[in-house]
Write a structure and sequence with these properties.
The protein has a 7-stranded mixed β-sheet with strand order 8-9-10-7-11-12-13. The chain has 2 domains: 117 residues, NAD(P)-binding Rossmann-like Domain (Rossmann fold); 197 residues, Dihydrodipicolinate Reductase, domain 2 (2-Layer Sandwich). The protein starts with a strand and ends in a 9-residue tail after the last helix. Helix 2 links the parallel strand 2 and strand 3. Helix 4 runs parallel beside helix 5 and helix 8 packs across helix 11. By secondary structure, the chain is an alpha/beta fold.
Amino acid sequence: MTYTFAIAGCGAIAAIHARAIAELGDARLVAACARGAGKAEQFCATHGGSAYRDVDAMLAAEHPDVLCITTPSGAHLEPVLAAAARGVHVLCEKPLEITLERIDRMIAACAAAGVTFGAIFQQRLSPVNQALKEAADQGRFGAHPLITCTVPWWRDDAYYAPGRWHGTKALDGGGALMNQAIHGVDLVQWLAQSGASGASAVIEVSAWTATLGHPPGAIEVEDAAVVNLRFADGGLGQLLATTACYPGSLRRLHIGGRDGSAEVMEDQLTQWAFRSELPGDAALRTAFAGATRHGGGASDPMAITHRNHTRNIRALLDSLAGKSPLELSGQEARKAVAIIEAAYASATTGRPVAPSPP
């Protein structure tokens, strides 16, 4: 079976989706829509499919199997509801939306319609991060490992220029934490919930936010955040998120405890050391020893690979075909936004905050 895809929103990330879809033998892009004059036409001229200005008209005419949501973050709700109303499966970019209230409406609508609601958190599908997850699930780091993620990125003033949605409360919902470092938020909580049920591993959040590297008034949200996490099993985590560190450097993810430590710099494994060595460890260190071959989004949002998006979409199609359960569901992706909402509340009140449960 070939699954047909449509894309809502023709910004930069939509091109990543189109490239990923094109690499899958059982997927085909049939349409894209954008409100801006000529944007969808230009996009489709490059990637194929028919161009539309309205998502409802596109869904009515094309009847796709899956709608990819690549609009600005605060404009995800409406196309998701439109897809659910027409029985179309959904694959939504991160964050699912900018508030839990809007996310819960999306989850409820898809559940009521009986359609699959999948999410994009492509860093989970990175082979090196999959290796970290497997080791965490096996308990190789010992009880209660510490998990940290540092996202020391840079975005120039043009990125937050007037007229753009980036850095606005209405469409970005937050700054460095909600937009750029949300992948790190997801990775940390994902590693921490190793072997657990579907409940979030994070039970308490303490955070500080600031605007440090961009002119006053140029950005409505934070460009720097430090977040401390407490996990249900007693472990601890920490996140640093910023777009104010020129010239930007790659994301670092570290997990370590009494029995071992591992560190990943975007795609490169820089540490893999355990009290008890296993036969495959040496080969794994060799396989992921190479330096990251792209910018990792550290200073250029589009300096990323589309390969993990391909894996993310592949996982959705395997779920639709009944080959495997869908790990990255709407409920799963909701956890990262719940943690971020708690972080913003903590930064405002000066007190620890528990993430909102589903």
